[in-house]
């Protein structure tokens, strides 16, 4: 039962995490979420199993021995029983305090796991800055905090056990005069049995406290509905209209869009952006760092909803559209640091459309300039990509990501600085692939390097959350505004 419960909890929690909004994941550390999925479920399971198995044994033993005590000496047993409510009362007060302590210890342990996760995941950066001692120290500070809280927790559990032993011994000692030696022996054995059972129950209560707190941390997220956030930020994963493929033009329009990230409510990132991206047009966004370019891409993908204003696709507000259709079928998103999953190259490309055939995977790879290097690997498409794609070069990863995005044949392509992290040769190969796939699609390019967007149909220049200049390369250059200044700078 314990295993089944844990399995179900893990499944439900994982599904709930996948259901949450992007804003929810922005606000929490990966390690903390993984901690709930692993050690909290494990704690809950262990204590659940222990409470059931040992709990049943100790309870039946206690009940049996109480009957035995009663048959030996009813008087003495009643005297013993009279003091029990006091113990229960004290126990429940102590229990509340223990639960609070345990909760705070677990929160600190989760924080430490979050830290460890961050450091291990970004090990190269830590090594590159020679910050191993620093990270070691800050991890130690966090685990010390949890250790300091856990110590009194264990001590108080021990104290409870000792109190119970003392109580039983005291009762026996003060009442022994009423019994003959045989009865006393029998009473002692039964009482000792009760004492042991009660002691194990009190140890069990510590474990139950841990289990309940761990369980409450898990259930907190299982029952968390995206709708508990302000309605503005809760975005369902599925459900809504779909535009039939043959009617879809790919006309994306932003109308007076204002946006503030939920976790930074005092900082308005977009301040009335209006942008028209006509079907099959290539529109480039450029501007200073932090102007809000990537935020526009996130809004088009509907990772967040605008605070005010509308985003429409072929005239339909995207809040009316099925988000999974929008992300899964209509928009292909390629960013600067594509994430690949562990598995084969083929699995990674097929991630774009799990029902694609091998031929479709290969043609997407060909279109993305990836087929030649993949077939050069000894295992070809079955080559296993290391965790986070570390076994591949930046340019190779990028081309696999392009193939993955192309597999769904998206009508709209968003390229968020797709070539900016590459060297000249890789950039040429990736750019060649992109030029090929941009044909007959609506494309939104976000670029730092202006040389990559010279040929765009429309260039929109952003500054402090607003579109301040719109035109093509020639027009903007002639205008002598921010764009021409940026060109001079580069
Ligand atoms: N997830 C987030 N939560 C809170 N604030 C964010 C988040 N992402 C971006 N921001 C803030 O929003 C603003 C715009 O960021 P954005 O990434 O859209 O700019 P950008 O123009 O794409 O910059 P860059 O060219 O450097 O990538 C910045 O001030 C940034 O700090």
Automatic annotation (TrEMBL):
Compartments in which it is found: Mitochondrion inner membrane
Domain spans labelled ABC transmembrane type-1: 1-210
A GO CC term assigned to this protein in UniProt: mitochondrial inner membrane
CDD domains named in the record: ABC_MTABC3_MDL1_MDL2 (cd03249)
GO biological process: oligopeptide export from mitochondrion; potassium ion transport
Entry keyword annotation includes Cell division: no
UniProt xrefs under InterPro entries: AAA+_ATPase, ABC1_TM_dom, ABC1_TM_sf, ABC_transporter-like_ATP-bd, ABC_transporter-like_CS, P-loop_NTPase, Type_1_exporter
Signal sequence residues: none
Membrane topology category: Multi-pass membrane protein
Domain of life: Eukaryota
Transmembrane segments: 78-98
Ranges for domain ABC transporter: 252-489
Keywords: ATP-binding, Ion transport, Membrane, Mitochondrion, Mitochondrion inner membrane, Nucleotide-binding, Potassium, Potassium transport, Transit peptide, Transmembrane, Transmembrane helix, Transport
Single GO MF descriptor: ATP hydrolysis activity
Entry similarity comment: Belongs to the ABC transporter superfamily. ABCB family. Multidrug resistance exporter (TC 3.A.1.201) subfamily.
Protein name stated in the entry: Mitochondrial potassium channel ATP-binding subunit
Lineage, top ranks: Eukaryota, Metazoa, Chordata, Tunicata, Ascidiacea
